Amino acid sequence: MALPLGPRFLFLLLIQALVPPSSLQLHLDPGLIDRIVRDSAFRSYLVDHQKTAVVYNVSLPPSIPGVSAATVRFRTGSLRRHGAAVGEFRVAPGVVVRPRSRRLVVVAQNLGDLSSAYDGYRNISGFRLVSPVLGLLFYRAASVRNASVPPELEILATRGPITVDFSGLARCSRGSRVLCALFESDGNLSLSNATRGGTMCRARTQGHFALVVESAGSGGRSGGETEMEMKLSGWKVVVVSVAAGAFSSVLLGLVAVAVVTAQRKRMRTAEMERRAYEEEALQVSMVGHVRAPTAAVVRTAPCLENDVAPSW
What we know:
Residues 1-25 form the signal peptide. By secondary structure, the protein is α+β, with helices and mostly antiparallel strands.
């Protein structure tokens, strides 16, 4: 049973015989490329690719020249326990798949010359690609047999990252800082630092990745803005440090005042108790010009039991 083709895909195949490939590239967008690669990968499982955990190269139509793709099917539990390696991608163990699926199909793609389709992202201006765009997408494997449109799955790497190795694919760009670009589904571009000498990217989820550098036309402006941001960041650090030091000093002062006040209150209470005890025990009386403590009368006054005088 063949996988149904979308109307845009059929239209693209129809006009491919009439329009040169160079002109056809102008009508391609990233979403359409992903759908063409996805449909080709799923059709390959209905013909040749039957084994699990085996990487197969995908035969792509001439409407997307220069693009290459590979696909492999996994059990979700096995992928979570052991991870996977597909082309330039390494998926560490511990991935979480949403929504849940017993089996899934991984499609890795290299857009090659069609990487320029991602030039339309909103904040790509000021940067230029120095590597092809590599894509890693996950689909529910149950759609291979029931001839339905395969839904794209979301994955999250919880233990180790997903790494993308651009060794041998990146064009040399001396004197520029190489950044990793993640092309998100909402049309935004996320940048992060490349590792291992500017040839490896790390991510926590699937998507499309590439290496970029600042374009020559905006290098001075971007460099100035970066330098200004660094200066502003330095001032922010100084201001925050001073504010934190002042706050700490005020806090220590308040603590010291509280300790001294509590100590004085305890001393005052002890003095009042001592005075109260002394005034209760001994009264002070004036004997001439001398103040002397005197004791209160505590004995009972003697009295005779009878008026009879003793016999002695």
